[in-house]
Write a sequence for this structure.
């Protein structure tokens, strides 16, 4: 896992999901809290670069931003995904209208295209709550799966 990895634990505490950039990993959790991989979904791998100034490792500007936000309930995992890069869209790459839905086994269930670009999502009682890209609006969507 990397710094910035989005994580979720199933309400029954028997499953775990981790998403970073374009990588999603699903795990089972046993009674001793050991993780065992159950599914992997990879949209794209992180692209790293070493800038000329300073001994740091950074992400390349042409890399897709990937997963921005994660929410979940007992049935599904919801991921806000941006396929845009900083090179293409600058800071707007950190917004998206695409929500990918998986079951806890790691199988894709649905893809939503929202009518607004958002920066964060939260699911509750089949309602998807989203913070708008300018931080001024809260959007609500009724989901049907």
């Amino acid at each position: 896992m990397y710094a910035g990895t989005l994580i979720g634990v199933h309400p029954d505490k028997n499953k775990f999901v981790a998403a970073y950039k374009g990588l999603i990993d699903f795990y089972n959790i046993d009674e001793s809290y050991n993780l065992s991989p159950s599914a992997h979904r990879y949209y794209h791998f992180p692209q790293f670069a070493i800038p000329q100034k300073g001994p740091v490792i950074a992400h390349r500007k042409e890399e897709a931003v990937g997963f921005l936000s994660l929410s979940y309930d007992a049935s599904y995992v919801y991921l806000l995904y941006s396929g845009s890069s900083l090179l293409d869209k600058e800071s707007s790459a950190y917004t998206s209208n695409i929500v990918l839905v998986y079951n806890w086994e790691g199988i894709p269930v649905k893809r939503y295209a929202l009518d607004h670009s958002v920066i964060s999502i939260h699911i509750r009682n089949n309602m998807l709550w989203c913070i708008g890209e300018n931080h001024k609006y809260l959007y609500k969507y009724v989901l049907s799966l």
In short: Residues 86-89 form the longest helix (4 residues). The mean pLDDT is 86. The chain has one domain: 6-142. DSSP finds one helix and twelve strands in the chain.
